[in-house]
Specification:
Elements lengths: L1 H45 L9 H33 L5 H17 L1 H16 L3 H12 L1
Helix pairs in contact: 1-2, 1-3, 1-4
Length: 143
Amino acid sequence: MVLDTSTVVLIWGALSGYVILRSLDSLLAALFCLHGLLMCRWKRLVNKETPGQIAYDIILNQLFKAGILGLVLVYILEQGNNFIWNEFRFSYQGRDGLLWVAAAGTVAIIFLLPTWRRLVVAWKITHEVGYAHKRQRTYLLRK
């Protein structure tokens, strides 16, 4: 029974570590989008004819994607937590809690660099003029 619980705890730790990291990634991307939207709006209020402004639809599209992904990941995390509690009575304490933290931390550290890259792209899309259009053209050319 201890081996079964430990195996489930390690698997749940790995999955939840990834989901938690992606949830935080989505939250930060949404905050970047809101900041970019605020900056864009402020520039338009100061001078409507200022060249090189990012279109609202690009920022709102990115915000929508980040928001939906974040909500889906938080829902998955909650359902997984409920399932683990109902099936195994796992309460994140003791030896099993340490195993969960180790598995979640290891997976989070492994996926930290791709997360950083995604955040850099989200920042560039919402703050650098023309980056989203160049990225879309490159994507369409590769197809």
